[in-house]
């Protein structure tokens, strides 16, 4: 069984936030919440200054603390290693938010439209027309699904996830710098595995033992 | 002189009081408390939630007597990689919490029953 993950090349990322915007639109993310976000900071003193852009989304950990912390057992890791929240089971206790060391889970406090007197086409879309992972409601937690709706569709259609635009997480193909890679971490021939080996890919906060499936190339 | 002795006495009480509070690395004691909570010998409350007065804070603050300032800090360090770092707490939280603090107790070798981290 494939085990999907991401590789992000920090030497290429220049913090344009195309991935953030694509994710917001694709997944109809609640106003104020971000499934994908770019952390930035500076190091050094003038004139030797470096600026870092670190895009962060759910790490889809092999050992997810959010799943262990959830008192409602609403978080599951599927057979492809993708960690998903079941919105029907979630009661918004926020234990997952407290347990996640990456801060990638968000709480939907109230339904809030992007514009005060106008609903965007995404906001008017009826619930039964949405993928179950887009049927969010106030009082629950939400996070990146690695665009599972796209991967699931590709698998059903017999396509290899990541093989074309529609079967790849939305944040990947929109990156103008080509800094994001998606693929099977268990396939030694995949581009992601080759990159991790060649560039010595690192994962964030390994001390937590969460075994995240998002690798960074420094 | 009486005033000096009085304040010295009050100071001693405060110091001894704070010593009785949280001992972060007394694993055996935490293990015992965690077991008793699990067995229902210590009542941590039924309402699971993050608000003060609910189970989470009851365990960490009321029962373990961890002081607010042990977990809550004013802000994250500049280079701290935490996606929600720019988000202010929704309620009147006394500050942000760095999850690195949780590893000591909530790892597989730690004394807490909920083993969140390896």
Please compute the radius of gyration of chain A using only Cα atoms: 17 Å
Net shape of chain A:
globular
* Largest sheet properties of chain B: 2 strands, antiparallel
How many structural domains can be distinguished in the coordinates of chain A?
A: 1
Number of E-type strands of chain B: 2
In the CATH classification, which architecture of chain A applies?
Answer: 2-Layer Sandwich
C-alpha end-to-end distance of chain B: 56 Å
Q: State the secondary-structure class of chain A.
A: alpha+beta
- Low-pLDDT sequence parts of chain A: none
Most extensive interface between two protein chains, with residue counts = A-B, 37 and 26 residues
> How many separate helices of chain A?
6
For the residues shown, what is the average pLDDT of chain A?
Answer: 95
Shape of chain B: globular
- The topology string of helices and strands of chain A comes to EHEEHEEHEHEHEHE
Estimate the strand proportion of chain A. 15-25%
Question: Unreliable runs of chain B, pLDDT <50, ≥5 residues?
Answer: 13-20
* Number of extended strands of chain A: 9
Strand content of chain B: under 5%
Q: Largest sheet of chain A at a glance?
A: 3 strands, mixed
Task: Tally the helices of chain B.
Answer: 5
């Amino acid at each position: 069984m494939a085990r999907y993950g991401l590789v992000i090349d920090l030497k290429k990322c220049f913090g344009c936030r195309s991935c953030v915007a694509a994710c917001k639109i694709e997944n109809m993310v609640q106003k104020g919440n971000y499934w994908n976000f770019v952390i930035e900071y500076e190091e050094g003193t003038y004139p030797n200054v470096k600026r870092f852009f670190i895009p962060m989304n759910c790490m889809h950990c092999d050992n997810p603390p959010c799943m262990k912390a959830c008192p409602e057992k609403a978080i599951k890791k599927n057979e492809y290693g993708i960690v998903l929240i079941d919105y029907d089971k979630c009661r918004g206790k926020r234990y997952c938010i407290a347990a996640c060391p990456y801060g990638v889970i968000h709480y939907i406090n109230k339904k809030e439209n992007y514009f005060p007197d106008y609903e965007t086409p995404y906001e008017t879309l009826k619930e039964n027309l949405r993928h179950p992972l887009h049927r969010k409601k106030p009082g629950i937690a939400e996070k990146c699904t690695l665009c599972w709706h796209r991967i699931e569709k590709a698998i059903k259609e017999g396509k290899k996830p990541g093989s074309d635009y529609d079967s790849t997480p939305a944040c990947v193909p929109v990156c103008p710098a080509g800094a994001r890679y998606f693929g099977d971490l268990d396939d030694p021939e995949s581009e992601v595995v080759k990159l991790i080996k060649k560039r010595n890919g690192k994962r964030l906060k390994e001390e937590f033992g969460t075994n995240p499936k998002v690798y960074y190339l420094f | 002189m009486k005033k000096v002795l009085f304040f010295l006495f009050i100071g001693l009480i405060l110091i001894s009081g704070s010593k009785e509070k949280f001992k972060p690395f007394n694993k055996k004691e935490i293990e015992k408390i965690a077991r008793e909570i699990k067995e229902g010998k210590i009542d941590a409350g039924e309402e699971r939630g993050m608000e003060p007065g609910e189970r989470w804070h009851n365990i960490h603050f009321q029962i373990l007597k961890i002081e607010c300032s042990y977990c809550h800090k004013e802000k994250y360090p500049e280079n701290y990689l935490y996606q929600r770092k720019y988000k202010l707490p929704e309620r009147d939280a006394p500050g942000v919490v760095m999850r690195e603090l949780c590893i000591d107790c909530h790892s597989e070798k730690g004394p807490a029953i909920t083993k969140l981290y390896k």
